[in-house]
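Anyone? Bumping this.
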Amino acid sequence: MSKMHIQLTINGEAQEVLAEPRELLIHVLREKLGVTGPHIGCETSHCGACTVDLNGKSVKSCTVFAAQANGAEITTIEGLGNPDDLHVLQQSFREHHGLQCGFCTPGMITRAHRLLQENPNPTEAEVRFGMAGNLCRCTGYQNIVKSILAAAAEMNAAQEAAE
Amino acid sequence: MIPAAFDYHRPADIASAVALLQELGDDARPLAGGHSLIPMMKLRMASVEYLIDLQDIDELRGISVSDGIVSIGAMTTQHDLITDAALAEAAPIMREAALQIADPQVRYVGTLGGNVANGDPGNDMPGLMQCLDATFTLVGPGGSRDVAARDFYEAAYMTAREDDEILTRVTFAAPTGGYAYEKQKRKIGDYATAAAAIQMTRDDGLCSSAAIALTNLSDVPVFAKAAGAALVGTSCDASAVTAAISAALGEIDPTEDNRGPVEFKLHVAGIVILRAIERAWSRT
């Protein structure tokens, strides 16, 4: 059960970390690499707070061994924006009151980012279906859905302006 | 929630994976998407000494439709099943069912092979495979063999797969006619309280064939042969549908759990079968 050298590209930066095969990706990210944006909520694949983007797919990093991610490209909330330069989704969550306590927000935004990559112009029903793997215990989801729809509209307008 | 320690292997082809399973014995487990196995390992309800991750084996991926035969590699994800245009055309019931499994994050990772090979009565694809009369290909040290889905399931988590075999492929004839996968669940991400898969055909206003299968209503998926037979030759009128439901309920054996008592499950089973027949018939 020796440790493995695991290579990950996290938010564009190559990283190498030594971990046992049984270590979950969320633990390696948070405790070994200091990437604390993805949160540990339920730790049972239900809540989506630990969602990261792994090779272009939204995954729950509490249900993936770091060893499985060896060689993968990972994007976390830290890779989407920062306090001085918020991502459109982050700005939209802020403006539309898409968060209260904020615990689920990194997972929500990371998942919403992938959803909008795949479907840039979703209906409200498509947003709700596409966000079904993320739980929020504060907002009742109304404002989360509103934030994502507003961000989609803004991203599409920016795209059109650029063309 | 940290599982017990194990050794991790990531073979590059089927032969190497089978060799590892043979060498390491019954303490080794193949790992597909892991979204059934890893939660069990975290709870320490599954003990695995050696994990054989199949993700690098390219020949286990992909969907092909050719001459009316659908062939799907075991490592094809639920998300792949949902987004594949040829599959949606050839067997739209696969997409309808896959969309009702778990949630988006799980569907990106969860695989068809893992879903059918795991043997969990709560999984949706085993029931659907009964309905489609699918065939599973298993590869082991002695070579490859095919097992009918209808002969594969022995009891909960007990299947015809030997410990040193890998389920590599699922094949079935592209179905014709109307279809439906109807599932009742308590919340997104839950397993079915009851679910029904139906494929049926219509000829001259009468039902000419009907295959009905049920999920999570016994310790194995149930192919409800008598229920299908009750519809054939009828116009799927109310009395025929009632007879089919009654036949199906006679073939299941649900147990009480946190999804409800037996009486409730029989009630829900009747409703999902009714809805499935109505929707499938309207699509013939």
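Late reply, but here is one note on the structure posted above: Residues 4-78 of chain A form a domain with the Ubiquitin-like (UB roll) fold (CATH 3.10.20.30).
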